[in-house]
TrEMBL record:
Pfam families: Prenyltransf. GO terms for biological process: polyprenol biosynthetic process. It comes from the Eukaryota. Belongs to the UPP synthase family. This is Alkyl transferase. The keyword Nucleotide-binding does not apply. It comes from Zostera marina (Eelgrass). GO terms for molecular function: transferase activity, transferring alkyl or aryl (other than methyl) groups. Keywords: Transferase. One of its GO terms (cellular component) is endoplasmic reticulum.
Length: 146
């Protein structure tokens, strides 16, 4: 079972390596505490590896931490779907979801279906119509009532 899963993962990664469209991230068994601890440790190793640097070069910035987050290279999510009707994030992607739309359907994860996903996307589009306009230069988009 595990070997099949690894093969499937490698095939899926190879098949989608050139994709440039939307990104679907599924995170399981994740906590921000582990991610921040890892990122700070790695940033410290990098900054303090050379003792001859000037003091201001050794200060750790947000960019230094973001470089070592588990989600480095992934765009921040626009929608976060929290199943089971929960409205709290429970230490989950707190930095990345600061400006994210939270969907909380009552379906549990095993019951979550394509229809729940479609509903979440349609609801997001209804609530955030300006997102499409923000990529446009047109001033008419800015006058759209929300």
């Amino acid at each position: 079972m595990i070997g099949t899963s690894v093969i499937f993962q490698k095939e899926a990664m190879a098949a989608t390596a050139a994709n440039s469209g939307p990104v679907l991230s599924i995170c399981v068994a994740y906590t921000l505490t582990d991610e921040i601890t890892h990122a700070i440790n790695e940033a410290c190793k990098e900054k303090y590896a050379c003792r001859e640097e000037e003091e201001e070069d050794r200060a750790i910035s947000v960019d230094d931490i973001e470089k070592y987050l588990y989600t480095e290279g992934c765009p921040d999510p626009d929608i976060l779907i929290r199943t089971s009707g929960e409205t709290r994030l429970s230490n989950f992607l707190l930095l990345q979801t600061a400006y994210c739309h939270l969907q909380n359907p009552y379906a549990l994860w095993p019951e979550f279906s394509l229809w729940h996903l479609i509903w979440a996307v349609l609801n997001y589009q209804r609530v955030y119509p300006y997102r499409e306009c923000t990529h446009s230069i047109s001033d008419d988009c800015l006058k759209t009532p929300m």
